């Protein structure tokens, strides 16, 4: 606050003029954007998962039914609905469906221990938790149900998300990969929570909370960043405005980043819905699966962290992968080493650009340009309608000297 008083941010573009992009960015309800795309392109694919295609119409209908199911069980405006899920199609329907019911989504990492999950369930006041029937998830969620104020557990069956042949294989050949559903009244299947009809929508404004996103685990106990519909929808629109490519071309984003993290939640999920594109979702990052998905699904964009790009280059299938469909790769989450960027681009012929963001900003603050001049080793330029101050690293009461690194 002291810094902003001493160095007030100039209005508009920094020179006293209205920002040229400001009129293109509107604070909206996230589920209204989703509904709009479902009307505009109902039969277009929103998700491709392990070879199965889910359309905008299909997932929007499931989201509406989940919203109706939540409302029928007393979940209303401001209540917390937790997602303890990997990247699966039901994540999309659960997230937007909870928002349709007026609830606030709380993201939890599938890697959490019982203690970590319980602490955040208690801190957030989560009433309902959606999880998967995976041995690494369901037993953990059940233990938290017994040791916290959590009221209900909703279980998605992975087999129901897969193409028919893979679903049969999982049910009958790989039963060890399925956790047994306990017989108790506070644990039920996802399909049992899908109500009928659209249900009554809770009256929300873009200024209402949409997401509690926990962050700061490297510096202490994680804290829940309170992100509104306006925060998240605006950032998704800003990211879409960065894209210089022809809007008539296919837009297919490879979703190997976890949707429970703000990077993917904004850059993969919300931005794709804003654009009307498609996500190729992978349950988790595995280099072999990612390279196979690139060959199979021909994505046009791939956001990731530097360790992902290094792991792909280290895999023996890397040389057999066709990168021609990918127009842009985006690196975030950690500094991108210059030598890694150069080797990756030389090997793939695909441009890899670096950006910067943080949970509290709803995702992205700045990025290098997708085309034209860029500066490797920097975080690029502020995204449309965003203003940034660069402060002295030793004295945050002063601006960083011209030409010097800052914070």
Quick structural gist:
The protein is of the alpha/beta class.
Describe this entry's structure for a reader.
The chain has 407 residues and is of the alpha/beta class. The chain is 33% helix and 19% strand. The protein is built from 12 helices and 16 strands. Strands 7-6-5-3-4-8-9 form a 7-stranded mixed sheet, sandwiched between helices. It has a 5-stranded mixed sheet with strand order 12-13-14-15-16. A 4-stranded mixed sheet has the order 2-1-11-10, with helices on both faces. β14 and β15 (363-367) form a beta hairpin. α2 packs across α4 (89-100). It is globular and about 65 Å long. The two termini are 16 Å apart. Residues 1-17 have low confidence and may be disordered.
């Amino acid at each position: 606050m002291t810094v902003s008083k001493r160095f007030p941010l100039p209005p508009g573009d920094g020179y006293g003029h209205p920002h040229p992009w400001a009129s293109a960015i509107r604070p909206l309800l996230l589920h209204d954007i989703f509904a709009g795309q479902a009307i505009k392109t109902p039969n277009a694919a929103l998700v491709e998962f392990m070879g199965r295609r889910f359309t905008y119409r299909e997932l929007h209908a499931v989201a509406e039914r989940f919203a109706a199911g939540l409302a029928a069980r007393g979940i209303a405006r401001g209540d917390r609905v937790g997602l303890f899920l990997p990247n699966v199609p039901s994540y999309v329907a659960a997230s937007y469906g909870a928002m349709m019911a007026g609830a606030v989504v709380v993201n939890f990492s599938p890697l959490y221990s019982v203690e970590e999950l319980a602490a955040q369930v208690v801190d957030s006041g989560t009433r309902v938790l959606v999880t998967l029937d995976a041995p690494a998830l369901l037993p953990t969620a059940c233990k938290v149900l017994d040791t916290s104020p959590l009221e209900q557990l909703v279980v998605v069956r992975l087999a129901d998300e897969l193409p028919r042949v893979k679903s049969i294989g999982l049910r009958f050949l790989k039963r060890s990969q399925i956790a047994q559903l306990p017989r108790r009244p506070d644990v039920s299947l996802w399909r049992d929570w899908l109500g009928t009809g659209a249900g009554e929508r809770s009256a929300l404004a873009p200024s209402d909370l949409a997401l509690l996103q926990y962050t700061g685990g490297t510096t202490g106990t994680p804290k829940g960043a309170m992100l509104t519909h306006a925060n998240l929808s605006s950032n998704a629109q800003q990211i879409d405005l960065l894209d210089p490519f022809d809007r008539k071309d296919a837009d297919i984003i490879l979703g190997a980043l976890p949707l429970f993290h703000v990077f993917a939640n904004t850059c993969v999920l919300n931005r794709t819905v804003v654009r009307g594109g498609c996500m190729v979702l992978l349950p988790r990052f595995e280099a072999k699966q990612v390279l196979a998905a690139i060959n199979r699904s021909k994505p046009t964009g791939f956001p990731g962290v530097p360790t992902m790009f290094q792991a792909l280059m280290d895999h023996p299938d890397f040389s057999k992968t066709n990168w021609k469909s990918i127009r842009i790769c985006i690196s975030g989450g950690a500094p991108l080493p210059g030598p890694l960027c150069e080797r990756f681009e030389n090997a793939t012929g695909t441009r890899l650009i670096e950006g910067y963001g943080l949970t509290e900003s709803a995702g992205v603050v700045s990025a290098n340009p997708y085309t034209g001049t860029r500066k490797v080793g920097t975080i690029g330029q502020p995204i449309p309608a965003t203003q940034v101050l660069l402060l002295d690293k030793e004295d945050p009461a002063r601006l960083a000297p011209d030409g010097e690194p800052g914070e």
